[in-house]
Each structure stands twice: as structure tokens, then as C-alpha cells.
Design goal:
Elements: H1 11-34, H2 45-66, H3 72-86, H4 89-106, H5 112-129, H6 138-149, H7 182-203, H8 205-210, H9 215-232, E1 260-267, H10 270-283, E2 284-292, E3 295-302, H11 305-315, E4 317-325, E5 338-346, H12 349-357, E6 361-364, H13 373-383, E7 385-391, H14 398-410, E8 414-417, H15 423-431, H16 439-451, E9 454-460, E10 465-467, E11 470-472, E12 477-481, E13 484-489, H17 492-504, E14 510-516, H18 523-534, E15 539-546, E16 552-556
Parallel strand pairs: 5-6, 5-7, 7-8, 14-15
Antiparallel strand pairs: 1-3, 1-4, 2-3, 9-12, 9-16, 10-11, 12-13, 14-16
């Protein structure tokens, strides 16, 4: 029998890894936040890891946007650089160094042996970046993952005499004889990390007292699980979840340590960074300095935030400086802020203008370019309000919006996330918004209005594919109801009418139609007449979505 060639990593796998890790951290962000008790019980480890991976993922997407088939080494370097730029918190900063360490080895080869060596380099470089490594943390989990993936550790596959095949059937650089299957190496690393995570309470007293595993280590296990899924196509079995109500109640507190967290990017040479490490180590704790090649991410907990920044100025050029006071990170917002605001993500300039006229602060979602959490946080800040209702208006933005809301809360802004899945639900929520009401009552009313609005959409299929309504061909008109394809048609107006009839079959009092700038002429009039003639006592309202808006959005209340 011919010997099976060992699988090799490629740029598409790295892209998938970033996307899967971001999705998984989005699902588990709150759970990881809830067990964050070390080094500071500020309940933000899951959020920080999410933001770090989000930045890595965006950097990889930028590479693919520039080049359809990017070089593998360029892709892994972009991932590491993006993580460095967006690293947040203690665990996020360490994760960025882990990814940097991996990228240094993977840039040389893409097979299982290189992956195992990459995990080892990642573990070593992360420990070197931490001034005083502590066992029972993400560092222990990373070390265990590397050890489990090492040759001869068991379960990681045997060497092969084959040559790994790169894109187009040619041998990939660095993928030489003796390589192991990357999926088996990834599975071994994940299994080792999970076992190490379960052991963290026995290594760190604060975890044992709280009855939890290390939050940073938990996040790393999630990232490694995404790697397994990216290289094998199968998600690994998850460990036991934190039982609801079993996790400790985490309150921001600075009594047990320094008052401030200081983070900044620094442009400096190695010699200056070595001096900076000594200076910051004397000022505080939780010191992590990651990076290289002239660009570093500095993280430290101190009582004198000014001195930490001044040390950076002496070492080089610090920028993107973030200072968080642990004791007041969730305190009331400044008095000069206004009372309440609504921030809404809209798919089209027409809708954005409409909602802005209604008083909302808007974020434009362009086709294929969903806003990142940083854009949503910036919009929340622009709203300049003590209380903010956030309307993502897209099911795919739920994790991004949740992370943005958590960031804003850390700045003292009270944020409520209404999980709107479509723009028409956001319009319905905004219609019942009353700033004079109590905040909780206003959020409940907006949530109820959004939930009572069914949403539909028309789109044109770009290629042949299987849908929940059958097989569609390129150019077919697809009618979606609540996110699923319900109708496949040939004509826009006919398909739209069919979708409307199905949505109204369960009842309704108001139909909202949002048409793109390039929608067929007369479409709005035809649909209004159809509703008037076939569904008595149902009103219709029409809005212009403007350029770049979806072909047709439908809401039924």
C-alpha cells in the first residue's frame, strides 16, 4: 500500500485557525472572565484573549485581502504581528508571545515536526518574556502542550519517510522527510494542555481557594482546540464547563496588589528593553515584555503609572498607552457624560442616515467588512453617554459586540447589548427607545420590540450551492427568513412576494421594507400593493438602504 503523506499546514489553515479560535473565545469569553482570579481578580481574561486573537485574525485577513494565495511564512508572521499589536492584559500579552514563538519556527517549515518545535519555542519564549514565571498559569499549560507534542511523547504519530506536499503538489519548503502528521501533533498538544489545565488548582493556592482552573490556561486550551479543528476538520471534545453559579463572583479589586495596569507598544532596541525590564520589575509586578525586531508590547501592574510610562519614554517611543485603575475600572462614568445613547451597526448608508436622524450613533458595516470590536468601542465612546444600548443588527457580530460592551464597561460606561440579528430588528428597537425611562425598562422594551420582529432578506446567489430550500444556481434569487434560505426564485419581485406571504402567514401588523440603491425600479410599489391586496389591516413602511445595502430587507412586526 502507498504510504500516506503527512499533512502540512498552509495559509488557509492558519486563517481558519484564527477564525475558529476567535469564534470559540467569543462563545467562552464570559465563562473565562468568570474564573479570572489571578493575578488580579478583574474578570477580563476571556475578553482580553478574545481581543488579542481578534487582532491576529484581522492581520491575517488583511494578508488575504492583498494576495489571493499568500505565502505561508508571511501569513504566520502576520498572525503573530497582529497579536502583538492587539495584545490585551496579562494573558493576552503572553498569548501574543506564544504565537510569535510559533511563527518563528513555522516560517521555516509546515509539517508536524515543525509544529512540535514551534510549540516548544512558543513555551520557552513566553517564559522568557515573563519577569517571574508562576506555575499553575497559562505558562504551565503551554509547557505541557509542548511536552505532549514532542517526538516520543506518545500519541503524536510516527515519523514518515515521505515528503509533505505543498500547494500545487510541490514539496513545501522545510517539509522534509521524517515529518509527522500535523493533526496528530495538534491533538497531542491539546490533550497535554487540557490535563495541565486540570492540574492548575493544585499548583496555585488562589485557584484552589476559588475552586477554579486558571483562566489564561483555559483560554489557551480553547485556542489549541481551534488549531485541532483547523488541521483535522473535527473539533475536539471539550472539558467540563463551569457550572452556572459555581464560578466565583469576581469584583474588580486592587487591595491585594498594585493599583494600575499599564500597557503600551514600544519602539526600542534590545539593549534599551533589557534596561526597561529591570526598571519596571522594581516598580511593580506581573511584568511581561513581548515582541522583538524593534517593536515590543509592555505589560505591568504598578502603583505609579506615570513612572511606568516614563520608563518607556526613556527606553524608546511608547504609544497606544492604556492605563487601567483596578479599583475604579467598573466605577460610575464621569459626570460630564450625557444620559443615554443608542449605538447601532447598519448595513448601508441610507439606514445609517435614518438611524442617525433618530438620534443613534451609527457604525457602517460594509459588505465583507464587519466592524471589529475596536470600532464598536470607539462608537460607544463617541456617544459620550453614561448609559449605552448597543444594537449589533447581525447575528455574526454577537461575540464582537459582547467583547466591545465588556471593554466599555471597564471604562465606566453602563452598556446593555440587545442581541438584534438584523437591521430591521434594530429599527424596531430604536422606534420604542425612550431615554426618559429607567435604563432597565428601556432595554426591556427595545429587546421585546426586536424579538417581536421577524426578519427576511433577498440576495442573489453567487455560485451553485446546497441550501435549506434545495440546490441553487448562480444568479438565483434567494429569499431568507430568520437567517435561513426559505425560497429559491428567478425573479426578485415574485420571490419577495413569496417571502412576504410566508412571513405574514403567522400574522403581523407592520411590514418594513429596506431597499438597496440598485433594487429593481418599482419594486417597493409592487410589494406595497401586494401587501395591501392580500393582507388586510397590515401597514407597510419603506426605507432606502442606500449604496452597499443588501438587495432587500424585510421586517414583520
Amino acid at each position: 500500500m502507498p504510504q500516506t503523506l503527512p499533512q502540512a499546514l498552509d495559509s488557509a489553515v492558519v486563517r481558519s485557525w484564527c477564525s475558529l479560535a476567535l469564534e470559540a473565545l467569543g462563545r467562552e469569553r464570559e465563562e473565562i472572565d468568570s474564573i479570572n482570579v489571578y493575578p488580579v481578580a478583574d474578570g477580563d481574561t476571556g475578553t482580553n484573549l478574545y481581543l488579542t486573537v481578534e487582532s491576529a485574525s484581522q492581520a491575517v485577513e488583511a494578508v488575504f485581502a492583498a494576495i489571493a494565495d499568500p505565502d505561508f511564512a508571511d501569513t504566520v508572521r502576520a498572525m503573530a504581528h497582529g497579536a502583538l499589536l492587539g495584545a490585551r492584559g496579562n494573558s493576552g500579552t503572553i498569548l501574543s508571545q506564544l504565537l510569535r514563538g510559533m511563527s518563528e519556527v513555522l516560517a521555516e517549515g509546515r509539517d508536524g515536526d515543525h509544529l512540535a518545535r514551534a510549540l516548544r519555542r512558543a513555551s520557552v519564549s513566553a517564559r522568557e518574556a515573563v519577569a517571574h514565571p508562576v506555575e499553575g498559569t497559562i505558562l504551565s499549560v503551554a509547557s505541557a502542550a509542548a511536552s505532549a507534542a514532542a517526538p516520543g511523547a506518545g500519541g503524536s504519530g510516527s515519523a514518515s519517510a515521505s515528503v509533505a506536499v505543498g500547494p500545487g503538489g510541490t514539496p513545501g519548503a522545510g517539509d522534509v522527510a521524517g515529518s509527522r502528521d500535523v493533526a496528530e501533533v495538534a491533538r497531542a498538544a491539546y490533550a497535554g494542555a487540557r490535563a495541565a489545565l486540570e492540574a492548575t488548582p493544585a499548583q496555585l493556592a488562589v485557584l484552589e481557594r476559588a475552586g477554579v482552573v486558571d483562566a489564561g490556561g483555559r483560554g489557551l486550551v480553547t485556542v489549541l482546540g481551534a488549531l485541532v479543528e483547523a488541521v483535522s476538520g473535527q473539533a475536539p471534545a471539550r472539558g467540563p464547563r463551569v457550572p452556572r453559579g459555581a464560578a466565583p463572583v469576581v469584583e474588580p479589586c486592587a487591595e491585594a496588589g498594585p493599583a494600575y495596569e499599564v500597557i503600551y507598544l514600544l519602539e526600542a532596541d534590545h539593549a534599551a528593553v533589557a534596561r526597561l525590564r529591570d526598571r519596571l520589575d522594581a516598580l511593580g509586578d506581573s511584568l511581561v515584555v513581548v515582541g522583538g525586531d524593534g517593536l515590543w508590547n509592555v505589560h505591568v501592574h504598578v502603583d505609579d503609572a506615570g513612572a511606568a510610562v516614563e520608563a518607556g519614554v526613556e527606553a524608546g517611543r511608547p504609544h497606544r498607552i492604556r492605563i487601567t485603575h483596578f479599583a475604579t475600572s467598573a466605577a460610575a462614568a464621569p459626570e460630564e457624560r450625557a444620559g443615554r445613547a443608542v449605538v447601532a451597526v447598519l448595513p448601508g448608508e441610507g439606514l445609517a442616515h435614518l438611524c442617525a436622524e433618530a438620534g443613534a450613533t451609527t457604525v457602517l458595516a460594509r459588505p465583507g467588512e464587519p466592524p471589529a470590536s475596536g470600532e464598536l468601542v470607539d462608537a460607544i465612546r463617541r456617544a459620550h453617554a453614561r448609559e449605552v444600548v448597543l444594537l449589533p443588527n447581525d447575528a455574526a457580530l454577537r461575540h464582537t459586540a459582547a467583547a466591545a460592551a465588556e471593554q466599555a464597561r471597564a471604562e465606566g460606561i453602563r452598556v446593555a447589548l440587545v442581541p438584534t440579528r438584523a437591521a430591521v430588528q434594530g429599527i424596531a428597537a430604536l422606534a420604542v427607545h425612550e431615554p426618559e425611562r429607567r435604563f432597565d425598562e428601556d432595554v426591556v422594551a427595545m429587546t421585546a420590540a426586536a424579538g417581536a420582529t421577524r426578519h427576511g432578506e433577498l440576495a442573489v446567489a453567487e455560485h451553485r450551492s446546497f441550501t435549506s430550500a434545495g440546490v441553487c444556481q448562480a444568479g438565483d434569487v434567494l429569499g431568507l427568513i430568520d437567517g435561513d434560505v426559505a425560497v429559491i426564485g428567478q425573479d426578485v419581485a415574485t420571490t419577495a412576494a413569496t417571502v412576504l406571504d410566508r412571513m405574514l402567514s403567522a400574522g403581523g401588523e407592520l411590514v418594513t421594507l429596506v431597499l438597496a440603491e440598485d433594487a429593481p425600479a418599482g419594486l417597493a410599489a409592487r410589494l406595497e400593493a401586494h401587501v395591501r391586496e392580500t393582507h388586510l389591516a397590515v401597514d407597510t413602511v419603506v426605507y432606502a438602504g442606500g449604496p452597499q445595502a443588501p438587495l432587500l430587507l424585510i421586517g414583520v412586526e
